[in-house]
Design brief:
Elements: H1 19-30, E1 37-39, H2 42-51, E2 61-63, H3 64-71, H4 79-87, H5 94-98, H6 103-108, H7 124-151, H8 155-175, E3 177-179, H9 181-206, H10 215-223, H11 239-243, H12 263-270, H13 278-309, E4 316-317, E5 320-322, E6 332-334, E7 356-357, E8 369-374, H14 378-387, H15 390-397, H16 402-411, H17 417-423, H18 425-439, H19 444-452, H20 464-470, H21 475-489, H22 491-507, E9 509-511, E10 517-519, H23 528-559, H24 562-566, E11 570-575, E12 578-583, H25 588-600
Parallel strand pairs: 1-2
Antiparallel strand pairs: 3-4, 3-7, 5-6, 8-12, 9-10, 11-12
Helix pairs in contact: 2-8, 3-7, 4-7, 8-23, 9-13, 12-13, 14-22, 14-23, 16-17, 16-18, 16-21, 17-18, 18-19, 19-21, 21-22, 22-23, 23-25
Length: about 625
């Protein structure tokens, strides 16, 4: 059925119902506790219903979108695609429904003829079939997925994990996180002042003004690149900029053949030395400033302007958390993306995270405190669990620095893992890169490039000292020697990676610790590139997917704690392995104790092999 509401064209004004009347009729139905609700992307629908005063009290819901993803994460999860794939039905799309609005009507309501229009301009007779189809085929698809979940053996995970997590995320999104708007606005002003200063210094070194955001003009000033004429013969080259070019040699090229001006290319130039060429020395300094400019501009756009644009009337950011935003099962976030907030050590001057503050406690009138609790090296914990590696197990048992431990064991360093950070910082960085790169199936070529291109602590394994030390011909062979030593040290990891790849080739999928599947249809492809990529995913998906399972179940458990609700402690954000809460100051100690316990026991209080590492 379609209940017409809010259509604004004159023809429909007497053919629809008033919102208050509709809410009074459907509210008693939707707020029952003994019904099942079917839908597609139900979390969005629950927010819409909440806005008109309807709360969902049943926990017996079925979301076809989540079921579709759990049954096959590699296929589109939209209703229309599922209708076509599963039922052979070609549904009307939203754009098709709104395209029925004539251009003269668009103009009448202030829209351009080529503009997309909202549904309120669609006539009831044109919109009802589209709306009824959405409801009917959602129900049909959900009935099919009830059976397919059982067939795929994903039904237990779906009902015990994904449906409860839907409600957890809904509550987090409704709760939102309070933002210190004044501080954020002032931060934006300070950032713009710094950007203006950087721009002035860049222009001063270049000897000419140019568009720092234009890849063509950057290529002109850096390399003297003359873009070929377009097919129409139009010349877009700026000859004034070309006259001031530094004429650096390009370090990389785009697919179109133009010299690359991305941050990595600019960074490589910033590391060059020209002792006898003052003009190029200025160019190197300019590149350093351009990197600062790019970083700051991104920070301002994403986390100042972006957050200010998306603040609600209550002064809060209400981000949208996507349960199926990544193939691995990790949560993604948007509008705004609070999972990408820079850490304090990465953002020493502006401290973006400090603008997120607690809300005012309705009982005390005081502002709540922010709590952030995270897992310690969660993905390495998962790797330790799967591999049962002796060295990794001892590392966690001794509470050693994970990356320092890898460096000490791989390079036979004369120090403890904790001392490694001060005594051998460059080798600890190698250890950190090794831990994550090999966990995700990377090889010698990638290790060599990663270390050489590390913007914070670059390390060229092709340097003479490393070639002499390892008695090889080039940096990639050095990288292979390091990988070989790593796997000799962590033999359990080597066996795990080999067994994962073998299992994937035999079955076409791998599992997380809870038995959630990650399907790898190209694992046995004749295309070596596709097959190798799937082999890497077979390792990555088990480790990263299990980390996701742990965090999700921890959130479900924390959200179910009645005592935390009594303490007025609310979960606000999940940032990968970190959970962020707000809580009255007088209740902090008790709340933290409960949260830590639940995070340490995400699957329950019984002892298991993984708990001892968490």
């Amino acid at each position: 059925y379609y209940i017409p509401l809010g259509h604004i064209r004159e023809e429909d004004l007497d053919r629809q119902l008033y919102l208050d009347y509709v809410v009074s009729m459907i509210k008693p139905i939707f707020e029952q506790t003994d019904i099942r609700i079917y839908g597609w992307n139900l979390k969005f629908d629950f927010h819409v219903l909440k806005r008109i005063g309807i709360s969902i009290n049943t926990r017996d819901v079925f979301d076809g979108m989540l079921a579709s993803w759990l049954c096959n994460e590699n296929t589109p999860n939209g209703l229309k695609e599922n209708s076509a794939d599963k039922m052979g039905i070609s549904q009307t799309h939203f754009a098709e429904a709104t395209s029925t609005v004539p251009n003269e009507v668009k103009k009448q309501y202030g829209y351009k003829s080529n503009s997309r229009v909202p549904f309120d301009l669609v006539l009831i007779d044109d919109g009802a079939p589209y709306a009824c189809g959405d409801a009917f085929y959602t129900w049909c698809a959900c009935l099919g997925y009830e059976n397919e979940l059982v067939k795929e053996k994903m039904d237990s995970i779906y009902y015990k994990m994904y449906i409860p997590f839907l409600f957890v995320l809904f509550e987090m999104e409704e709760q939102g996180v309070t933002v210190d708007k004044n501080r954020l606005e002032q931060m934006g002003v300070e950032m713009q002042d710094d950007l203006d200063d950087l721009q002035y210094r860049i222009y001063e070194l270049a000897g000419i003004e140019f568009n720092i955001g234009s890849s063509q003009q950057k290529a002109e000033i850096l390399y003297g690149y003359e873009k070929p004429l377009s097919k129409t013969g139009k010349d877009t080259r700026n000859y004034n900029i070309l006259e001031h070019s530094f004429n650096f040699t390009p370090t990389n090229f785009t697919k179109s053949g133009a010299p690359s001006t991305d941050n990595d290319s600019v960074w490589r130039i910033s590391k060059k030395e020209y002792k006898n060429n003052k003009r190029k020395q200025k160019g190197v300094e300019m590149c350093k400033l351009m990197l600062e400019y790019s970083k700051l501009a991104k920070l301002k756009t994403a986390f100042v302007d972006g957050i200010l644009d998306q603040l609600y009337d209550d002064g809060k950011a209400h981000p949208s958390f996507n349960q199926i935003g990544t193939d691995s099962g990790r949560l993604s976030c948007s509008k705004p993306n609070l999972q990408q907030l820079p850490r304090a050590e990465e953002d020493d001057k502006y401290q973006i995270r400090s603008v997120f503050i607690g809300s005012i406690d309705e009982f005390t009138g005081k502002r709540k405190k922010i709590i952030a609790i995270d897992y310690h090296n969660l993905e390495m914990v998962c790797l330790t669990h799967f591999s049962d590696d002796k060295c990794l197990s001892e590392m966690f048992a001794n509470d050693d620095d994970a990356h320092g431990s890898t460096a000490v064991n791989t390079f036979d360093l004369p120090c403890t893992p904790v001392e490694c950070k001060k005594q051998f910082p460059h080798l600890r960085q190698v250890g950190k890169t090794l831990n994550f790169l090999l966990m995700y199936g990377g090889g010698a070529n990638l290790l060599y490039e990663k270390l050489k291109g590390d913007h914070y602590a670059p390390l060229d394994l092709g340097a003479k000292e490393y070639l002499d030390q390892y008695h090889v011909r080039n940096g990639k062979e050095v990288a292979q020697c390091i990988i070989d030593k790593y796997f000799n040290t962590y033999s359990g990891v080597a066996k795990f990676i080999a067994s994962q790849k073998k299992f994937a080739h035999r079955n076409g999928f791998v599992y997380t610790v809870l038995g959630r599947k990650r399907r790898l249809p190209d694992i046995n492809s004749n295309d070596m590139g596709k097959s190798s990529y799937c082999e890497r995913l077979s390792v990555n998906s088990a480790v990263q997917g299990t980390a996701g399972d742990i965090t999700i179940n921890a959130q479900i458990r924390v959200a179910s704690e009645e005592r935390l609700k009594e303490l007025r402690c609310n979960m606000l954000i999940q940032v990968h392995d970190e959970l962020v809460f707000e809580c009255p100051e007088e209740n902090l100690e008790e709340a933290i104790k409960i949260i830590k316990h639940d995070m340490e026991h995400p699957f329950g209080d019984s002892e298991d092999r993984m708990i001892k590492y968490l």
